[in-house]
Amino acid sequence: MMEICMISTTILDNIATHIQEVVLHESTRSKILIGQMNLAHYADIAQLMNSLESEYSVKLFLLLKPEMQISVFYELQTALMRTVLSALNSADKSNLLKNSHADQITDLFDLLSDEELATCLDILHKKDREQVLSLMQFAPDSAGGIMNVDVITLMQNFTVAKSVALLPRLRPRRDLHRNIYVTDEENRLVGLIKLEDLLLKSPETQLRSILRQVPFIAEVDQDQEEIANKMAHYRTVTAPVVNEHNFLLGVITGETLVDVLQREAQEDVHKMAGSYVSQSYFETSSASIILRRGILLVILLLVESLTSVILGSYEATLSAFLVSFIAMLVSTAGNTSGQTSAIIIQGMSSGDINDSNINKILRREFFIGFSLSILLALVAFARVYAYHQFFWGSVVVSLSLGIIVFASVLFGSVLPVLLKKFNIDPAFSAGPFLATIMDILGIFIYCYIAYLILN
Q1: Domain 305-454 is in which class?
Q2: Which is the most buried residue in 66, 129, 134, 278, by most CB within 10 A?
Q3: With b meaning 16 or more CB within 10 Å and e meaning fewer, what string describes 12-30?
Q4: CA angle 393, 397, 402 (to 5 degrees)
Q5: What is the C-alpha to C-alpha distance for residues 134 and 125, in angstroms, rounded to an integer?
Q6: Alpha-carbon distance 242 to 188, whole Å?
Q7: Beta bridge partners of 159
Q8: CATH superfamily of 153-263
Q9: pLDDT tens track for 363-379
Q10: Rounded-to-integer distance, Cα 108 and Cα 62, Å
Q11: The whole model's pTM is what?
């Protein structure tokens, strides 16, 4: 496997090096490279095309075999997908759309203009067009928006023999998974069977007699992040999607699960950094990035100016000795709050922290915060007093640090929970937002304690 991956990478590197020669497709070397490219993994080919100028990417895409085009197309960046689609002739466009899953087409159509959408819908068969239009009514980040409708399902009154006879006929047009969902005559979900059940049971056995319980059933309007967490919790690689009447609408596959987890993780990282954008990095214009990040930084800059106001108010109290420890206190507050919020947010994201155990988690974090505050306060007192031999100054620094650490744990654990209560992504509570709050609060605590003790 490792050797195959290395060969694939070498081929694609050669194509990138001789891209002008390859897209002309006239020399013997270019024809050999194109033939080898069609044997590479579609994800590697898409990565190559995403790195090239769009002009070369389109020409390279047209040199792929039709079946490879379908796999590569849905791995391309959004802007490049639109460029490639507009460059295809009617026959190639028809082949691409008619051989794509309905959920893939639905995701694609969310990116197109009204004119492009109308053109593509005209190409699809009537049945496929109705299927895509029905999927487009669901939110893109809901179960209905990410489900796959082109999967094999069976009816409970089928025998094992009939089911085995049907699979080869359905397999070329629909996806087959190890878990095969079973419905009644009205398409209501009644259970599942394993693929191996069809091999181990007698041919006359009806499926209703060997049904297994479905570990997790997704509701059509359920959020994709919640679904991903539930699937991970129940350790299932597929999940059926039903409506309010338990009618089976589609299936969320393991491949979709991986995509959702990857997108949600990327979103959380951007939200924690305060720079969330709905598109990928290279698909977002520099002006848009500058505007979003610039506005946030300006707001935080203005809010941070409150620390100057606080320091100015306690200027008479703060000696050069006390000022020298401000950076230490502020950085400790940021580190502690960031550490705590990251743990809470990750637990909420994975489902380990939920409404049933949140009070237990918060009590535990408060105890941890109290313990850490005592530990760090003692270390700070020892460090300051050993170097400066100033008892009351050491008390001010260590006491302030202890209170700041406890406050950091308090805010880092409670703030994500409060945001979750108001249906706001807890990831927004981390990063620069929480750090700014703790900067201001930490400076105030430090100045006020110094005023109480030294004055």
Answers
A1: mainly alpha
A2: 129
A3: bebbeeebeebbeeeeeeb
A4: 145
A5: 14
A6: 8
A7: 206
A8: CBS-domain (3.10.580.10)
A9: 999 999 999 999 999 99
A10: 19
A11: 0.55
